[in-house]
Amino acid sequence: MRDKIFIITFFLTLFLHAQKSNLAPSKSVIDEYFGTKIVDSYRNLEDLNDTLTKNWMKSQTDYTNTVLGKIPNWDNYLKTRLTLDKKQGYSVSDLRITSNDKYFYLKRKAGEKTSKIYYRLGFKGKEELLYDPSSFVSSYKDVTPNISHEFIINLISPSWDGSKLAISLSEKGKEFSEVIILDVKTKHVYPEIITQLNPSTIGGLKWLEDNSGFFYVYYPEIDSKSPLFAKNTETVLYKIGENPNKRRVVFSNLHNPDLNIPKEVYPAILVFNPDDKYYIGILVDSEDFRKTFIIDKRDLLSGKNSWKPLYTKDSKIYFIKVVENEIYFLSGNNSPNYKLCKTSLSNPDFNNPEIIVSEKEDEVIKGYAVTKDGVYYTTTKNGVEAKFYLYKNGKETNIKLPYVSGNVDLSSKGKDFSDVWVKCSGWANPEQRYRYSLNTDKFTQENLAPVIEYPEFKDIIVEEVSVKSYDGTEVPLSLIYDKNLKKTGSAPVLMQSYGAFAESFYPFFAISYLSWASQGGVVAVPHVRGGGEKGAQWHKDGQKLKKPNSWKDLIACTEYLIAEKYTSAKKIAVWSASAGGILVGRAITERPELFGAAIVESGVLNTLRVEKNGTGETSIKEYGNLNNPIEFKGLLEMDAYQHIKTGVDYPAMLICTGINDPRVAPWQSTKFLAKVLANSGSNKPVLLNVDYEGGHGGDITVLKRYTSLSKIFAFAFWQLGHPNYQLKKTL
User: How confident is the model over 57-67, as pLDDT tens digits?
Assistant: First the structure.
């Protein structure tokens, strides 16, 4: 046994020394912005087809997999999760209920890699399997034959009457989908396959009132390397049985030149009820407030191009719903926590609407549903304390939830029905689904998947605190840990945050978090500025020139944990993904002494070059415009790559990326890692993991994600000193 331990330690030592000798090829480029010269030492790594770049990326990934595989118990989370999945039996997601009570949903049994589509008539109806994605054959001619392909269902959309089901499928982390249509009664799959769309993210699939087809957003260019990638997108009307390559465009910048639609935004159509008289057209970008148009349904379906402006971004309208001759919406006009309003559809006045629910001082209105009995809505305080209300006949009622919930999601059948459901969850509470009856004022459980007890997590508690940031702003911080934890400053902390695009980190039941806490660790979730936890202003205060607030909030939360003796410096692993790469990258480059490890997945780490991703207008609106001399300074300040300094002792790092990522180019990760590797003064491992079958992180098999998380947790525990993950020292 001691010989085996010696071999593991010996080889890992060799690997750690060998990595420093395998530095990335470097070809510097000097750019000048408004008189400021910027050196980009690894511009050459942006060419992913370069042989030297490809070989270096492959060697680093091989090295990373070897190192991670040597960590004792690296597969602990993987084994734990598979065991708990088996105990539960199966899970259910993406539930869709039609007005005639047909249930469609995804279900994955323990041991299955992907979910299948199931159907039942009513909650108590007999379940039947509708579709297995393993039977799908891609329409793309370049799909390699005789190779196994694992397609994931990322969206299901039933027609109004539930007679047809549109199914969106993708594989290998690719966000662009192929859509098929299934006849529910016969289970016949129509031969036509619709391509070059991404309905799980943009536009969805909006059915016609006669169930004969739907609208979707088409991408003329899906090659992320093309300068036209994700530009000039179009809303297409597709009728079942038609040739999907003969597209009937009904809403786009080319089709509607008089509307002045920017080529970078996504024109999409909203449909709320089958009997609507109008269609609503919105221009989708990274912001919540959007320019919006309206058209008579008969005009659009007959080919007339009579779109008219409805409201602009300045109106600060958010989350609209059309109900007969009224428009319901959330208004951010002088109300960053939003107020619920309505106005006439035939003669709208968004500046002076009828206010149904006024803005609340410390609660953000999160969602609402218009039903036969009134308007139900939910709020959240600090992003972690949810409430449920009913507005009826001019009166507002706070409805007590079945249990104290950190997050509540609301769904209903629509304006003509009383049916309403809430899904309640929290950091330590499994999600449960309830039907609410106004007549009896009672909640009835209607879970489609088993809700089981987790005795292994019975001692885990949740603490919600508020931390004063550098400028006095109070930042919510969620803490998850074992109630028997002793505050001696020795606990390993896993800190996860995001802080961008107004996305809120709402509480959810994460077995990954509970697993970490059950091993003596603390999970910390700082709700930093840039997210939406405290309303629209909270987002603005973490954008562009104010972006430093995001990582300074995170640093303040880190210092709080140290001061309160939950942990110590170097005992904290900070983790994020995508736009959260800015948060992590700048926290560890500004205060490297605080952190023991950093994990970034598909991260934005080189903001001065982020527009080269092809995301264009979306990035500009959130981060800033490189051609603006003021916003350039903000982009430079948030650029983690440009803040790497020679000789600084940076923490250990695990930088992950997917080669098929259309949102954040893989070179954002490789350039950052290459520069850290060449300049860090510490001997901490700096690991690159390129997933050659992955994308931006979504739409992958469950087993693959479990394996990835298992390696992330093992890496963090190893670097933070957890005894069960340490390589044994030899005499």
Answer: 999 999 999 99
